[in-house]
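Record type: ASSEMBLY
Status: queued
Input:
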Amino acid sequence: MTALREGQAVFEPQPSRQQSRSLASRPSAADSVFRRVSYAAGAATVGILLAVGIFLGMRGAQALSVARGGFLTQTLWQPEGGAFGIRAVLFGTVTIAVIAMLVGFPLAFGTALLLSEVVGPRVGRILVALVDLMAAVPSIVFGLWGVYFLQKEIIPVSQWLAATVGRFIPVFAVTGTDGRSISDSNFYTSSAFIAGLVVGLMVVPTMTSVMREAFSRAPDGEREGAYALGATRWGMIRSVVLPFGKGGVIGGTMLGLGRALGETIAVAMIISPLFAVNWEVLKSGTNSISSLIALRFGDASQFGLSALMAAGLVLFVVTLVVNFTASTIVARSRSGAESDG
Amino acid sequence: MPGGTSGSTARPVAEGPTGPRRRLRGATAVDVFDVLGAGAAAVATATLLFGKLTAMHGGIGWVVIALVAFIGFYALLASLHSTGEEIKDKVITVLLRTAGVILFGTLVFIVAYTLVRGFPALRHLNFFVQTMWVAGPQDPLSKGGILHAIAGTMIQIGIALAITIPLGLTTAVFLNEVGGRFARFVRTISDAMTALPSVVAGLFILAAVVQLVFHERNGVAAALAITVMMLPIVIRSADVVLRLVPQNLREASYALGTSRWRTVWHVVLPTARSGLATAVILGTARGLGETSPVLLTSGVSTVMNLDPLNGPMISLPLAVYNFVTSPQPNQVVRGFGTAATLLIVVLILFGLARRIGGRGPGHLTAGQQRAVQATSIRTAVRLDAYHHPPAGAPTAPSGRPEELPR
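Status: finished
Output:
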């Protein structure tokens, strides 16, 4: 099984000894089997994703060819009637994700700094484990909490926001069809605000662990240098930790955004589906692509299903772009630290 | 050192009286009182605003106002005895701690809320040993249970693991040990797969497997949907673990003339064993909790179905969704009970993953270290006996590593 078959040279005629031997190694039989099997596993993984993409594309194209440009501008979703588009659901998806980021980013950023800079190593390790644990909590648990606890507790806050901030900033206002503001609590349930809050809490653990990892990689020498120059802890964080962790902050936020865009079950439980662009985030009624799929797949015809697939394809492309940008940024911010025992 | 006379360093002796030892860490009394005072003022302010002065009401609003007031009062107190940068530092530190308290408080509260609301259902043993076949929605909690959902979850996750473990780990090995342009492409693709929204994975299985192959919703379809979600997670975390295997272990193996396959099997995989177990367990925890893929693919049933190829097979997350969409209060309690069960299973799996994979590759527990030592002593004995065959006096070799022939 040796790579170089030296014994062969003996049987060859004399002149060929002048030529240099080939040093290329020939893998053994077991090795080539191993290579082929692992190659096949890699190919199978690629195959699954390509199958998802191709299938979605092919089935979705059927619906897209009917809807054409209307797919982006139509707010209604009546595939059987021929009028369907993702304008409202895409708007709702983005609204919920933006609210989730507004809630999640400060929490994740603060907690990540707390874990890497403020608390001691022993407490830190416990809290890091807790953050990782929270990332594994099923989303339906968050959804239950959002529907049965947060919904009724947050309505007074929504009403207060609408009555004070809403007077000056139209996004926070809650108005009826006549344009006058409403304070009835029934108009404040199932809103994009509540869904965004819950999704924001769900994605915080993911964001926190990426950011904390980036922060803890800031070199000790620079930290000590900052302290030696008389910096306070915040001064050190601002001048050393944040510049080193910038990539992690951006990348972690975008990873969280990717998850927030695709979140399904918690959103589907909280919102009441509305097929119109609703700028008033505190007001009842919003929508998202993923909850549209989850709520409509059951009664969809073949064509309705392919319309849902087109919507799913759009969601996939959006999350793919967001995630790729995120992982590129995170990877670039990492130094090529290789472990060596 | 040129000054050393006998080659040893002299220990400096303290001269004169030593002062009291200074505390370098911990908070001073003033710091503690700042926090306490600001806290008391914040609670008082929020209570006044909510109870007396304005019409604001509700628990969350109270907490928000109290936190904002706390930060404000703390900044005020800190500015009384500190200057410029120091105030900023203190206020920021308190802000960071507040973020931590909000996050951990909320997350612990969510878990506790689920467990408490689910407790009335969990209290009854029949919840775990009966199916919903024997109980209607309006029956009391002492009738009916979620055994069918537990069985469904176990079957589905079993099938998913049977696909994910070999495929995922082999792919991770391929990424690390074979390499090349195609491996980089596979890594990119598996990264992209983690971005796949779970509901889209479910939609794909619904259209490709349920409609084209089985013509009905069943357990295998659900298991395949879970597989599509779990596979990239397992590949990514196993890839990271394999990358942590020290390169010089591989080089040592190759230097001994080993083939690539034997290096992977005898060096790389055993070294990374605990990390790979963690990768699989984390993937399982994620797969267990996925609701939307099974919502689209498994179908809902209230009876025990152990055949994954025939008929709908419900699982725990779907049972939660199904219970809480019912208007009956008892069904909602059952939903919370199911969610609590799911949560406990996930938490146990996660604890297991931390326990197994808390250490990096090559770091052994005391027990593992003893096992490794015992193995190497046995090897030494074997080698010793091989090199010094028992000629006249067949005494038992002492087996100490020092006696190994070099």
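Annotation: The longest helix of chain B spans residues 84-122.
Annotation: Chain B touches chain A through 103 residues (CB under 8 Å).
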